[in-house]
Amino acid sequence: xxxxxxxxxxxxxxxxxxxxxxxxxxxxxxxxxxxxxxxxxxxxxxxxxxxxxxxxxxxxxxxxxxxxxxxxxxxxxxxxxxxxxx
Length: 86
What we know:
Layout: H1 2-14, H2 19-37, H3 42-61, H4 63-68, E1 70-76, E2 79-85
Antiparallel strand pairs: 1-2
């Protein structure tokens, strides 16, 4: 009985420490599900994400564009769509 009580107490005290793990597991599952349901290959998805990050970095590193415009970049099948306003 003491062993069960000790296990219950330890489990109860460690639950708050697992909050970050749930986010990682759910996020990983969502990413895996999006890759499964996407018609693009995993390599193309990675290329699209890389292209988007590079473009957004260039836009954000340009002080004039950053201060006087609102722009976003989206890449799909290595074709880029720029949206926003200046």
